[in-house]
Each structure stands twice: as structure tokens, then as C-alpha cells.
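Support reply, case 0932

Customer input (verbatim):
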Amino acid sequence: MNPFTIIFYQPILNLLIWLHNIIPGDDFGWAIIAVTIIIKLILLPLSAKSLRSQKALQEIQPKVDELRKKYKDNKEAMGKELMQLYKKEKVSPFSSCLPLIIQLPFLFAMFRVLRDGLSNDALDKLYPFIHAPEAVNTMFLGIINLENPSIYLAIIAGALQFWQTRMLTHKKQPQVPGSKDESMTSMMNKQMMYMAPVITVVFGATLPGGLTLYWTMNTLTTLIQQIIVLRKKNTPSSPSSGSNIIDVVPSDNSAPKMSN
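Our regenerated output:
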């Protein structure tokens, strides 16, 4: 067996079957949900760091725009100043991508498990201490066949993706006069807020329902974690700190406001 099978595919397969055996109800969907939560807990420190980094990048965006405006004719100086800013603010522009990259092998492993259809050949890769069930019920809640694409799960995944992205891009940044980069960044954030859910729905509607269920639960748990992390980070600090406080729960549908 190749390293991917040993490190990712086989553990995911065995964990799914073990959870299917011990969770009452003979419903493979609950095993997928449980595996999603377990993987999320394992990656929790990285995910929390990524969320804090994304929020910090948004908060220093006005400073980034000022530097881009100031050094628009000197790309080398702009790069140096940006790196100094990131270092000063203790922010990495690439750290938010790390959890997604780490999650990809788990996603591919889950895809292979569901693609193989839990056949006898696949069950031959079970560990000796894992009992091979006579049959695996792939009907989630009795209505969704997790071996086939599900448009309903895809739409739910897309809606959760929109909510998650909107939480990170909804905060309105202060305007920097004459900065074209700021408007470009704002436009890209807005496009991402709508394009990411559409891509999720399109791909989710073509993948096995079990994989879409995994992606849906992964997005939901990320959203819950995002709410907790950002709310904790935005808790008002002592008056002497002089830091900006973000109103994360506005009373109406307007963007969060900044207050001294």
C-alpha cells in the first residue's frame, strides 16, 4: 500500500466503520458527522490561529492600503514595508491557508472511501480489531443516499459557506483617500463572498452525498469556531490599552462599527 493509503485512507476508513458500529441507529451519516468533528478537534489549534490571522489581516488593511499608495511606483520598497508591517503586527499573510491545505488529504481520503462504496475490497483494509459489518446503511436520515450526489446537502453547504465568508468580510474598513488598491480589495472580498458558495454548490451537487455531508459539517463547525474565536478576540479590553473595539453584533443589518 502507498503512504497515502496507510496514513490517511486506512485510518479514515477504520474510524468510519468503528463509529458506524458503535453509534446506534445504523446510519452511516452519523459516522461521517462524528469523523468530521474528530478531525476538526485535531486541527483546532491551527484553525483558531488561521481565523485570528484572517481577522488581523482585515484590521490592518487600511495600513496596507496606505503603503501601497505611498510606494505604488516602487514595488521593491513596497514589499519591504509590507513585510515590516506584517512583522510588527505579528501577522502572516499566508497562515490562513495552512488549515485548508492540511484538510485536503482528509478530504481526498473521505472521497476515496465513499467512491469505493465500502465494497468488500475496501473492507479488506480494516484493522484486525475492527469488526466488518455485514452491510452499511448509506441512507442518511432515511432520505439521502450518501453514495449519490445530493443537491439539498450542496445547497446547505453553500449557504453555510456564504455565512462564514460574510462574517469575515462584512466589516467595513476606513476609507483611504485616493487608494485604488483598497477598492480592489473590497471588490475581491465581495466577489469571494458570493463566488465561494456558488462553487461549493456546483461541486457539492456532483460529489457523493457523504462527501458533501462531510464538507457541510466541516463548514458548520468552522462557522461555530469562527463565532467563538472572533467574539473572544473582540471582547472590550481595558481602557488603558487604547485598542479599537469591534461591535460584532450590530443591532441592525449595517456593517460593524469601529469605536475608540
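We compared this against your earlier run and they match. Two observations from our side: The mean pLDDT is 74. The radius of gyration is 22 Å. Please reopen the case if you see a mismatch on your end.
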